[in-house]
Predict the 3D structure of the following.
Amino acid sequence: MAPKVIFLMADYGHDPTEAAIPWKVFNEAGFDITFATEAGKQPVCDSRMLTGWTGALLGAPQVAKEAYKTFSRDSRVQNPTSWTDPSLKLEDYDLVFLPGGHDKGVRQIIDSPRVHELLAAYFPKTAKPSTKSLVAICHGVQVLATASSAEDKSKSVIHDVQTTALPGFMEQSIYYATWPFLGDYYKTYGAGTDSVQEIVTKRLDSPSLFKNSLGPSPFVVEDPKYNYLSGRFPPDAELLAQKAVAMVNEVTKAA
């Protein structure tokens, strides 16, 4: 039986590379893929990363743009389930995937009590040894960090986990570089708010649990205690998805 993966997404605003490239890798690996949005509406990724001068100068690479075209035509993308449906249980899946994206539309999922509830129930089940896995990239890690543990509401579900996310230096650099043209577009919660790195690190038991790299090479962090992988930003997406396939295949075959 093919491993089952579910993408939890906002209606609009995710980064096209961080959604379409993992979808492509999982599809080629033969995974059974499901998508979920708040009310079952087809997810649409950030158009500024695909078209216009922002798409040309700052946006997704051509390979990701081509992948996104095919992604958008996938019937599973066009007909997602709803993460507000009371019958939805993440435990029915082998892998939960959280793509990122900096457009303000992703606040729909970052701020969702229902998504937090689902993750609080699921994430502890990824503790090794387990057949359950979770993978997040960029602002997807912020979704996890914002979700509180079911056992201790003062702590994040990933309070004791090694993770990466969008580095603060990268976020602030592109924000200041584009401010004259795009305003606070690169700050999901607006000018003057904490970076993703700051938000995530504040929810960890120790700042040392946040793993960082400012290099251009793909960078993926694997936690030693949980079946959990994380990435920083779009250039990490393909390696992250490949490592996710290897991890899921390993833990499900070992069961």
Observations:
- The chain has one domain: 4-254.
